Amino acid sequence: MRALPAAKLLDDMWSDLEFLEFPFVPVSRDRNFFRQYDGFTALRQGQFNKNVNIMIGINHDEGNFWNIYNLPEYFDKPEQPQLTQEDFLKCVQTVFHSQPEVVRDAASFVYLDRKCQHGLGKSKYYAEQVSA
Predict the structure, then answer these.
(1) pLDDT tens digits, 54-74
(2) Opening angle at CA 112, ends 109 and 116, nearest 5
(3) pTM value?
(4) How far is the CA of 19 from the CAs of 22, 71, 101, 121, in angstroms?
(5) Cα 113 from chain centroid?
(6) Contacts of 1 (CB under 8 A, 6+ apart)
(7) Which of 117, 112, 71 is nearest to 94 (CA)?
(8) Do 58 and 128 meet the contact criterion of CB atoms below 8 Å apart?
């Protein structure tokens, strides 16, 4: 990637993104990587940790942003969304449509209510699992 022109990286940043895939975006405020608070200044001055192979991050509830666009029938509502278990399973199939069936089954298994505390009716629980 270092050999590629910046314009090429920017052009390709949004191409072929699937549901819940995110483009590369710069992080400008991170005291663990940059030696000073402003990342853009640190990059210009070479004041950053150069011994990093990969950086990955996760934001809690980041699915909320995408759900209203990609699953509007469930999440583009003024009130707190509620899903049935069947709705939840449809969401998993939509979100992971490009993944093998074993991945879709694993995602369903991880987030399903295995204690059956939420029944088969509509529940805030299943909507929260899709947004997690």
Answers:
(1) 666 656 666 677 788 788 899
(2) 125
(3) 0.56
(4) 9, 10, 16, 26
(5) 21
(6) 9
(7) 71
(8) no
